[in-house]
Amino acid sequence: MSAQKRISKELAEVTNSPPEGIKISLVDESNVHNWNITMDGPEGSPYAGGKFQLLLVLPTDYPFKPPKMNFKTRIWHPNVTFDEHGSMCIGILKPEAWKPSSKIMSVLAATQNLLVEPVPDDAVETSAAEMFKNDRPKFNKTAAEYTKKYAK
Amino acid sequence: MDSDDDFMSGVSSEEDDVLQDGSDNEDGSADDFGFDEPEPDLGYSQKETVQKKKKSFDTTFTVYHPEDIQGQQDDLIDEVNMILDLRKEDVAILLRHFRWNKERLIEDYMDRPKKVLEDAGLGPSTSGPPKLEAIPGFMCDICCEDEAGLLSFAMKCGHRYCIDCYRHYLAQKIKEEGEAARIQCPQDGCKRIMDAKSLDLLVTADLQARYHELLTRTYVEDKDQLKWCPAPDCVNAIECGIKKKDLDKVVPTVVCDCKHRFCFGCILADHQPAPCELVKKWLKKCADDSETANWISANTKECPKCNSTIEKNGGCNHMTCRKCKHEFCWMCMGLWSEHGTSWYNCNRFEEKSGSEARDAQAKSRVSLERYLHYYNRYANHEQSAKLDKDIYQKTEKKMIQLQSASGMSWIEVQYLNSASQALQTCRQTLKWTYAFAFYLARNNLTEMFEDNQKDLEMAVEALSEMFEKPVTELADSKLKVEIMDKTSYCNKRRVILLADTADNLANGDWDFNIDIASPTSRREGPPDRNLSRYPLIN
């Protein structure tokens, strides 16, 4: 049993009717496992106006194992590490929460949602989380500044 | 099988009585160990035991074999199945959800059946028993295959996937993740729990076996009074009613049918008479300190002024403390200035400053020496037990040779096995008496304890010496009788010591210089102070 059919189907779905503010392309046309994602910073969030690059990697065992997703663009966010890895912590991608029937479409929606509503209790970037909890105006300002700086 | 009969059972007592032909054994205590080695078949059943008096340091427990553990689960499932009108595989899921608390399950289910089912992962279901089907027009939502005749499966929640995906999913959960009791339906967001019957329909026999093994594991782990025997490759579990809060009053040693003796409280090897918390502190202390302490004791002194530990790495006796700049003589520990012109040569033992400094240092060394006193004896018994075992293994080989040469029977050489066992068990006990004594504060009971310790130690060393004799001497019947007598005496002394310590522990009569209540059962306090290296008693 190969995951090719499933991946092709999901890719077609996302390419033909992409969620608002998201563009998808393959890193390498011959490999359906690595996807480039461009995500617009959602309106009403400090990320609005920014364009964020993400890399989505589907493991060989996909869809039985969850995909991996990282921010290639730096982002000031409690749930994304503020470094060159841009590792993110999001519920749906945790191995214990992932189900083989979970779809990439829902991963993308969850990511957009995470930009609008950070989950500071699941933080991976603690200084951002502290700021988010204790000084919201400063957090919004910082996030917007970094968006301007990095997310062109 | 009940422990009262089996623990430290008459297995060996009868053998001892037979083998020791009349050696005095009036309180029957020589039985206080089991054979570690393969059981010699002596022609009578182990079950023919004389009803033993339970000793004060014995713990009541039961050994369960895998089939017993399975049987217990099946019985519970049957019971609930009769009371509640539910499928057995669903009852199993419910019981696991309630951590096998049958009463609570029934009570809650009677009150709110729908909620209970949903919480346990047995939400709303479609009718009909789950089976493999080929449904026209079906496409698997996981692999997106839709060929005609594709076999598919759905649990009662109705989420249908092809058999290959289902198998792959289950194999991953069971093999890679070690999950069994909480495998959910592959549907995103569906909390339906995979039941045993559906699983058996889907996966291969080896996965089924693994699945049931994992389920049994959760059964044992879910129950506080059940614990796995920690011996390698042992599949038994032990049931014991001793609770965590009791551990400052008893040392619950249990013996698995595989002969492994361990503490039910902390799963470490038998450590009677020392209570669990004491053992924990002792082991930590030894891990932290013993090597360092040995070296420090041999190679360093403390600065007489600031007590910094100083290593003299060569050169003259004129020391200048790097920390406080105090100048003193390494030999007499007195002020260097008092040495006048007699440099590089200390002949001034009379000076006041020197003798005071030596006193202070002596005091700070006392704690270290006290620790080393107990540690060395503890370590010695551990080491000797290993050596005794080695000797036995060597001797056993020779005895087999001797058997054929001298015509002695297998039974006739078993006294060596008994002696070896006695040495192992007694040394294990002695070892822990030293950790015990280290933390024991002096009161009117300690002298009795030390006497018991001394008696046992002398007996053990005497037996150990006889045991080391060459095989040709061992074959001598006089030595044989002596060894058997000594074996029986050692075992008796051990019982006396353990009974005495256990009684006092149960009555709270010992004074310890540490808190031996288990950390979870005592009032939350600040964490242990991070003690500096000295003093070593903590």
TrEMBL record, chain A:
Domain UBC core: 2-152
Keyword terms, alphabetized: ATP-binding, Nucleotide-binding, Transferase, Ubl conjugation pathway
UniProt xrefs under InterPro entries: Ub_conjugating_enzyme, UBC, UBQ-conjugating_enzyme/RWD
A GO MF term: ubiquitin conjugating enzyme activity
EC number annotated for this UniProt entry: 2.3.2.23
PANTHER family xref list: UBIQUITIN-CONJUGATING ENZYME E2
Protein name per its UniProtKB record: E2 ubiquitin-conjugating enzyme
Automatic annotation (TrEMBL), chain B:
GO molecular-function terms, A-Z: ubiquitin protein ligase activity; zinc ion binding
Keyword Transferase (UniProt): yes
SMART domains: IBR, RING
E.C. number(s) listed in UniProt: 2.3.2.31
InterPro entries noted in UniProt: Ariadne, ARIH1-like_UBL, E3_UB_ligase_RBR, IBR_dom, TRIAD_supradom, Znf_C3HC4_RING-type, Znf_RING, Znf_RING/FYVE/PHD
A GO BP annotation: protein ubiquitination
Residue intervals passing through the bilayer: none
Keyword annotations: Metal-binding, Repeat, Transferase, Ubl conjugation pathway, Zinc, Zinc-finger
Protein name: RBR-type E3 ubiquitin transferase
Organism: Hyaloscypha hepaticicola
Lineage: Eukaryota, Fungi, Dikarya, Ascomycota, Pezizomycotina
